[in-house]
Design brief:
two-stranded antiparallel ribbon; 11 helices; 4 strands
Length: 192
């Protein structure tokens, strides 16, 4: 996408990113220069992404979660993130509107990309999130949230679903927007 190989950010990509993120043209150009220095071929591999992600969670195991995050942003399924995908990921995970973050969260949980979330997909992502929680913080979790299975069961119960039921995107977004406890279950905020 864009003119990654030529070293210049295409005007089309620049305009698209300005319109869809909170970043200014100057910020995007600075981000692009930095991205090009770190990824001279204009792409970041899953392994590189996992390594970078790991630096944010030095006391835990974020590799599984990073793999799912990467998958959710590799929109063209080529096994790499280009600059556009990278900036969209950065924007959505750090500063995007809640509704957009929840659209992304749904794509994260929709592991098989069939447009619905199953309980097993919820458990897979929650297990990956749980591995990012340092053991000393895990000990402080409420009894009904102190394991991936308990958290998945609790989330599934909020949606009043049977084990074989599915959750559609709109239902997921509405449910999370209406209940802060669900939001807490689907993410991990490191203690400062």
């Amino acid at each position: 996408m864009g003119n990654a190989r030529s070293g210049a950010l295409s005007k089309e990509i620049l305009e698209e990113l300005k319109a869809s993120t909170r970043y200014s043209e100057e910020e995007l150009c600075r981000w692009y220069e930095s991205f090009q220095r770190q990824c001279p071929d204009g792409r970041i591999s899953r392994t590189e992404f996992e390594k970078i992600y790991g630096t944010f969670f030095p006391n835990s195991d974020p590799q599984g979660y990073a793999r799912h995050v990467f998958r959710s942003f590799d929109t063209n399924d080529d096994g790499t993130l280009d600059f556009r995908e990278y900036i969209i990921a950065l924007h959505l995970t750090s500063s995007g509107k809640t509704h957009h973050k929840l659209e992304w969260a749904f794509s994260l949980f929709d592991v098989d990309r069939n447009g619905e979330i199953s309980k097993s997909e919820v458990l897979e992502i929650i297990t990956a999130i749980f591995k990012m929680i340092p053991p000393e913080e895990q000990k402080l979790l409420p009894e009904d949230e102190n394991s991936p299975q308990k958290r998945a069961d609790k989330l599934w119960a909020y949606f009043n679903k049977g084990d074989n039921d599915k959750i559609a995107e709109g239902e997921f977004i509405d449910g999370v927007m209406k209940n802060d406890a669900i939001m807490r279950l689907i993410q991990y905020e490191p203690k400062k």
